[in-house]
Structure formats: C-alpha cells, structure tokens
From TrEMBL:
Superkingdom assignment: Bacteria
Transmembrane spans: none
N-terminal signal peptide: none
Protein name listed in UniProt: DUF2063 domain-containing protein
Stretches assigned to the NGO1945-like C-terminal domain: 149-244
Annotated Putative DNA-binding domain residues: 10-96
Stored InterPro entries: DUF2063, DUF2063_N_sf, NGO1945-like_C
Length: 260
C-alpha cells in the first residue's frame, strides 16, 4: 500500500511551529534546513524590528541577550489576534500581562514601562482630535462645561515610567503613584505631562461623565480627597483648567447661540 500523503495543513503547522520555536520543533519533513533557517530569520527579525521600534526604552535597558530572549518568548508563545502590523505592540502588551512567566531578569517595572510605551504608539494612530482652544475656558474656566479630549489618556503608575532609561532604573515602586496624562496635541504630536493626583482624579471624572460643569467637577474632587476648603481648591484649580485647555487635553462645550 502506498505511503499516506501528509496533508498540506499539517505541513503548514509544522512550518509555523519551526518558525516560532526551532529549538523545540523540527522542520517539516523533507524540507532543507538551510532554507528553513532563512525563513525563520526573516520572520523573527521582522517581529523583533517592530517591537524594537515600539518599545525602544525597554530594549535600551535590557541586555542584548535578555531582549532577544524576551522577543523569542513572545514569538513562540503568543497567538496574535490581529493581522495588522500596527497592533503588534498591543499584542506584546497582552503577552506581558497574561502570558509572561516571571523571569529573574525582568525588571520590576517591565509591564508598566511597556504600557507607557504602548500608550504613546497607540495614541499616535488613535482616531479623534484634540479640542480647539476655547476663549471662554481661558477667561472663565470654572463657568464652563468641560470634557476630556478623545486623544488624552490619564494614567497612574507605581514607577516613574517617563523617567526610566539607561542609568535610571528603579528597583522599588515610588512612595506616591506617578500620575501622567499622555495626549496628542493639536499638531498631532504625542506628548506627556506629569500631573498631581488632584488633576488625575479630575481627568478620571471627565472620562466617566463625558462632560460636566468645571466647578462641580472641582468641588467633587475636593470632597473625595477630603479638602477642608472645597471652594478654595476650586478657585485654585482654575489655572489648572486653563493649562489643560491650552494643551488640548480638555475642551469646553460652547453654549448654544441665542436665537433672535
């Protein structure tokens, strides 16, 4: 009886398994090993290049061997759910959050730093625009109904992720959380701004509410944080609202035009 032909699908699975992890999977039967190594190198280098561009700080702080071991582990284990190269960074973040086995070489801030770097890339391609500067918000900020930009994301981290790099690699979390807002400005440039916990909570409320009276929002923050003088905090917060408005982090809803 003639030998049963191996299905094309089985060959595909064997090909993909070898490309992902050649140390644990043999090449498809009958293929030239030298050719398979070329395919493996091309595929792996492509993914490594995208991750290096998306997470340059992580690559810069890891040794060369640790970086390539991290990329290889992602490449071998993770099953991406997107066909788009621009979303590989999000897949890598998902891997770190849900699939990465703890490794003694991993810095304690690895996941947070990856999230911060991913945010910059995600905002660069996110839909939406920064609101136009509002003259009303500049002149009387507490009297406006305000909202947060579609392309402004408030974040809180245990580590000062925006300062991490070669020569500055903390081993323990900060005593206080690092609060940031990462945003895309009116010139379509991604920026970050370190903010106080008060401003962070204000932006959180805007995310939750959609839009709210600026004064009501400030008073709510003051009450939540236990300020003894909520009205004083609201008045002090007026300058913060102006600064956020100038950067395009928040906008104001113009009142309807009066009909004659």
């Amino acid at each position: 009886m003639p030998e049963k032909t191996v299905s094309f699908q089985q060959i595909q699975y064997a090909f993909a398994a070898y490309i992902r992890d050649p140390n644990r999977n043999p090449p498809p039967h009958g293929t030239a090993l030298a050719r398979m190594r070329v395919y493996r190198e091309l595929f792996f280098n492509n993914i490594e290049n995208f991750l290096a561009n998306g997470f340059p700080v992580i690559k810069s702080i890891l040794s060369k061997s640790d970086w390539f071991a991290l990329v290889q582990d992602f490449y071998a284990k993770h099953r991406s759910k997107t066909p788009y190269f621009a979303e590989i960074a999000e897949e890598f973040l998902d891997y770190l959050q849900n699939e990465r086995d703890p490794c003694f070489n991993d810095p304690p801030y690895l996941l947070e730093l990856a999230h911060y770097e991913w945010t910059e890339l995600a905002l660069a391609i996110a839909e939406g625009e920064a609101p136009q500067e509002s003259a009303a918000l500049m002149s009387a900020p507490l009297e406006q109904t305000i909202y947060i930009s579609e392309v402004a994301w408030p974040m809180a981290y245990r580590f000062p992720v925006h300062k991490i790099g070669p020569g500055h690699e903390p081993t323990d979390p900060s005593e206080q959380p690092t609060c940031l807002v990462v945003y895309r400005n009116r010139e379509d440039t991604v920026k970050f701004l370190e903010i106080s916990p008060v401003t962070y909570r204000l932006l959180q409320i805007l995310e939750e509410e959609g839009s709210i009276s600026a004064k009501d929002c400030m008073l709510r923050v003051a009450k939540e944080l236990g300020y003894s003088d909520p009205e004083g905090l609201a008045s002090h917060g007026a300058e913060t609202l102006r600064a956020l408005g100038k950067r395009g982090i928040i906008g104001a809803i113009d009142p309807p035009a009066c009909s004659v």
